[in-house]
Amino acid sequence: MTSNPAIAANTRPWTNPAAKPFISIQNITKRFGDFTAVNDVSLDIYQGELFCLLGGSGCGKSTLLRMLAGFETPTAGKILIDGQDMARVPADKRPTNMMFQSYALFPHMSVEKNVAYGLLREGKSKAEAYARVAEMLKLVKLEAFGRRKPHQLSGGQRQRVALARALIKQPKLLLLDEPLGALDKKLREETQFELINIQETLGVTFIVVTHDQDEAMTLATRIGVMSEGIITQIGEPRDIYETPKSRFVADFIGSVNLFEGKVGPAAPDFMRVETEDLGPLNVLPVPGLTQGQTVWLAIRPERAWLTRTRPPEAINSVPGVVRDMGYVGHMSSYVVRLANGRLVRVTQANEGRRENPISWDEQVTVSFEPADIRVLTE
Amino acid sequence: MSALDAPPQASLLRPVLMGLAGLVAVALIGWLALPANIAVLLTSLVAVALACLAFTRFMGWSDRWMVIAIPLVWFVTFFLVPFFVLGRISLSEVAIAIPPYTSLWERAPDGTLEIIASFDNYLFLLSDSLYVSAYLSSIKIAAISTVLALLLGYPIAYYIARSPEPRRSILLLMVILPFWTSFLLRVYAWIGFLRRDGVINNILSWLGVIDEPLVMMQTDFAVYIGIVYTYLPFMILPLYATLVKLDDALLEAASDLGATPTVTFLTVTLPLSLPGIIAGSMLVFIPAIGEYVIPTLLGGPDTLMIGRVLWDEFFSSRDWPVASAVAIVMLILVVVPIMWLQAVQNRQEKNA
Fold it and tell me: In this complex, which of B252, B255, B257 lies closest to A169 when CB atoms are compared?
């Protein structure tokens, strides 16, 4: 990824402290009565990014998006788009367009008229507008459907009409609220890559709201994980997955085993953490921790390592019994019960045809590499 | 064909037995608890239903059409039969008899049956300008009232539909509330407001706005007030029903694409509420055309509406044939817009 620094610097402006953010969200708060939907959120997003706001329902991600679109007024804070303060700019004057979760296509208008709507409001002539509509429909592969009404289209086609309608004004910023939520799994996977292609073709900045971590991981240049109105972590998909900052993020993105423990005495190569479930574990030293402090160890199931006998080179290992096993083709997932009853999830890649795979009720050893254990303090 | 695919055996015995039991039950309850004529009516209704069911089963038809049997019987009994009676009367001539019109057929001396029917009554309606201008004036008054009710009802319906829940129910209740009082009493109440020394004139002269009391009673103005007031709920309710279904996201989408609130209203809200506008307008226009009570109580002698003409023909002139012709023509005037409404709604449904 870093083999070509010129491109790397170009496509990852957030790594460059001198880069000017395109959208700057500054200490935004939104309250509905007593309920704080968005709590003092600050966020910079750069030109050409595909930024995903990821979180469960009610975490404030949609509210944040709606404030960017101008449908909600922030209780406090400031939003700058391309350096311009949006406080006094109504939704119909903002350089943003939105793709709605329900698509919100006008049911009484044909596909063409839906897509042309934004251009006609700009005062473009009909001829010009419909020429652009034809281009746009071609981009989303709906040339043949211009005269249809929305109810005559499939879910995937409606989604593309909504995208075309939102893109036709060439907004500086496109806001997408659960853009793929209403599609079935296969269509969703195809559309994800289509969306990325379109985004790269047009160079528009996208902000996508989603509750689907796979969608966020696939689409995003960066992800902002939201929970209870605050952004708990911002980072590239790999950072979020590999180095989550909190138990919430570790647990929300993918699956994880979490063990509580106390920091033990310092050792030369490793730091020791005393856990109730696994006994003492050796982890890579983390600066800034004091002895006796409570920490949590996060271990991804695919980073644990399952054997019948204890491997001599293993630094951390615990015995257990396979309680459950699932074969998924490219991998198998196991649930291992430790001596104290605690369950640990482990997945093993199925490389090659194993003659005698580990199965139910076998005595096994689960081992962890120190580098694969993430130490969390919150 | 497996046993599962086979249609269930339509047994004749079971429904007939059940029906007979029902018949006996209704007859017993009716005989014990209800006035005799209602008991007879109920019992015969059940008997008719039973006969229909037995007949369908006997013919081996599907029972499904029984679902529409009740509305069908209702329609035939209370619309189609009276309509043909009126049509028949409109083709005869006035006579001093009971009932006061001539028979449509006569036995000729040679024993053949002669049919005497004429369209003279309809031609007469055309020849006398009173009828034509009464129709035109009814249509005019009904149309203007409908437009006024729409202009007044739309913002009310919009406001109710956009209100948050507890308030919305209260507002809807307030729209329906006047129906608790008799329509006639409410029209009488307007006399108290509109007359020379009525509430409005008293307030205006107390405020010093007017020196002379305004003449409002017995004018077309009073008729408009009466019709709009009476039929406003019929405009508001269908409008409310379409506006409340309007998805907020559509309005946001319009504004997101650069439409100002006015443009959003004209390009999204208004076209999507068209079914409600049409339904509401029909519900006001159709009864307003034939309105009799309001022009009689609030209108002046020169307020010409076809409902009053109809009344006069039936009860003052006792000319039942002409009155029937007036009624039939009025019905056609009303049915044409209904059919247009149906056509528009069908088209809407096909597109929705």
Answer: B257
* Domain range list for chain A: 17-251, 259-376
Minimal-distance CA residue of chain B relative to A93: B258
Query: What local confidence, expressed as pLDDT, does residue B117 receive?
Result: 83
Contact A107 B272 (CB under 8 A): yes
Q: Which of A70, A97, A151 sits opposite B257 (nearest CB)?
A: A97
- Return the beta strands (E) in A228-378 as ranges: 230-235, 257-266, 271-275, 279-283, 294-299, 304-307, 316-327, 331-338, 343-349, 363-368, 374-376
Question: Which residues, 6+ apart, have CB-to-CB distance to B150 below 8 Å?
Answer: B235, B277, B280, B281, B284
Q: At which residue do the structure tokens 């459907």 appear? A: A145
Phi and psi angles of residue A176, each rounded to the nearest 5 degrees, phi first:
-125, 120
Residue A6 is predicted with a pLDDT of: 42
Same domain, B199 and B295: yes
User: Is residue B171 domain-shared with residue B77, that is, in the same domain?
Assistant: no
How many CB contacts within 8 angstroms connect chain A with chain B? 66
Token pair 């809407």 in the structure block, residue: B348
Whether residue B331 sits in one domain with residue B288? yes
Residue pair A366/A346 in contact by the 8 Å Cβ criterion:
yes
Q: Which domain holds residue B64?
A: 13-88
- Compare all CA atoms of chain A with the CA of B275 and give the residue at the minimum distance: A108
Q: Do the interacting molecules here have an ipTM over 0.90?
A: no
Name which residue leads in pLDDT, B243 or B9: B243
Whether A17-251 shares its CATH topology with A259-376 is answered: no
pLDDT in tens, A3-54: 444 444 457 888 888 888 999 999 999 999 999 999 999 999 999 899 999 9
Contact call for residues A216 and A254 (beta carbons, < 8 A) = no
Contact between B190 and B184 under an 8 Å Cβ cutoff? The reply is no
pLDDT in tens, B71-118: 787 888 888 889 999 999 999 888 888 888 888 877 778 878 878 888
Name the minimum distance, in Å, from the CA of B308 to any CA of chain A.
Answer: 43
pLDDT computed for residue A354 by the predictor:
66
At the topology level of CATH, where does A17-251 sit?
Rossmann fold (3.40.50)
Domain check: are B185 and B233 in the same one?
Answer: yes
The CATH architecture one would assign to domain A259-376 is Beta Barrel (2.40)
Nearest-angstrom CA–CA distance, B97 and A146: 70
What is the DSSP secondary structure assignment for residue B216, as one 8-state letter? Answer: -
- Min Cα separation A157/chain B (Å): 17
Residues in a beta bridge with B101: B94
User: Is residue B63 located within the same domain as residue B200?
Assistant: no
Mean pLDDT score, B336-350: 78
- Same domain assignment for residues B140 and B48: no
Neighbours of B44 (CB within 10 A): 13
- For residue B99, say if its preceding peptide bond is cis, omega within 30 degrees of 0: yes
Q: Smallest Cα–Cα separation from A357: which of A323, A306, A299, A311? A: A306
C-alpha distance from B15 to closest chain A C-alpha (Å) = 43
Contacts of A99 (CB under 8 A, 6+ apart): A162, A163, A166, A174, A175, A176, A177, A179
Say which CATH number the domain at B237 has. 1.10.3720.10
CA-CA-CA-CA torsion sign (A281, A287, A291, A297): negative
**Are both B143 and B198 inside the same structural domain?**
yes
